[in-house]
Amino acid sequence: MSDGARYEAVIGIECHVELKTSSKMFCGCRNEFGGEPNRQLCPVCLALPGALPVPNRLAIEHVVRAGLAFGAQIPVASKFDRKNYFYPDMPKNYQISQYDLPLTTGGVVRYRRADGSEGSCRLTRIHLEEDTGKSTHLGSGDGRIAGSTHSLVDFNRAGVPLMECVGEPDIRTPEDAVAFLEFLRLTFLYLGISDVKMEEGSLRCDANVSIRPAGTSAFGTKTEIKNMNSFRSVARALEYEIARQRRVLAEGGRIVQETRGWDESEGVTHSMRSKEQAHDYRYFPDPDLVPLTLDGAWIEGLRGSVGFTPIAAYDRLQRGGGLSVAQVRQIVEDPALTRFLLETLERKPGDDAFAQATANWLLSDVARILGREGISIDGQELLTPANLGELVELASGGTVTSKTAKELLERMMAGGGSPKEIVAREGLAQLSDPSAIASVVDEVIAANDKSVADYKAGKENAIKALVGQVMKVSKGKANPQLAESLLRERLAQS
Ligand SMILES: [Zn+2]
How many Å lie between the centroid of ligand 1 and the Cα of residue 47? Predict the structure, then answer.
């Protein structure tokens, strides 16, 4: 019975996402990361006697749009509850959250793994709450409370709107957990509702893990893992915890339901505390906040504002088959680049070769110039989907040489303009007329005795030098393949 391979893991993810709003959830204080400690405060977020909270409409809209992006239901009735909270980083001693009537219920997160295959995980709910302040423990050397001499509390973050997404235990592998999180994160990025930066704490996640004999349906006892600070640590922590639970069972032990912290440097999870149950929090409706009734027309308006999601973009870019899995992933990770590409592709719907050529331009030459100039695709206005589309057509159709096309791109990104107009105005079209190139070829043969002699002596590389000369004399316009074949023809005759 010690064969760990006969167990499968059951994983459920919970995410906390700080929402992008100008003010906090229930007061007018600024919602901004960093800043001097305890400067973004008021009587409401400090819970001074008599202060009354007012909900932030934009934060509610953000959560509803997040739910709609995943096909969740938006109940008409919702409300805020008080969750009793026992730590000093919350001045109220309770947190305003949502208990039995969350803003959204259900929904499905579809995701793609690194190899392009598809998976999905249902959502239980998404609700809205307020973030806590931040404690810093000093004197212990490693930031932990154990062994510390004193603690500092910064309330700037207290009251920042926080969205909690609770996933169903549909995930079976650490790889899928990461893919799920990636698409969750990207969706919020596309919606523009959060910065979703794990390093700044605007995206935080916990994972519930249990194991059970493969082929059974009853859940085993789960542990909850906290303190995972990157997607990589999520994968490592889950791998560690699954192996630990297998080992415990193989040795005849029992899994204890508890919260375990991930230790990044040691690469282990360690027991933090026994898991709280919902009744420990003694939820009750917040008497300062009236229940919410969501208007159907308002919800429909938000549905119309969701726009396309990363999974929809992924599906669309992969459908044609013109792009590799790696290219699709690279593009989808950048909402602005995805928008730019999709808009360019509207020029020639269903044309795989055009899609592939456009993606190649964006990921290579355009990306190189943007990187060199230190700007992003949406941080410039000179290159537009319309003029990039024209350039791709000019280059793919052979109207200009690849050398001319690259120069055109540089000029478009420095000064804008339609590449077609530049080509027509400056006579940059590729020379594909043999008679026009022939005179240049003759000129080059006459002026390059050494290369001609080398070629005739069997030095194959000499032909490249001669083609280079033809390109130079024609100012990059000669069709290089045609130039080479004409050169070989003439040299064989002479
Ligand atoms: Zn405030």
Answer: 9
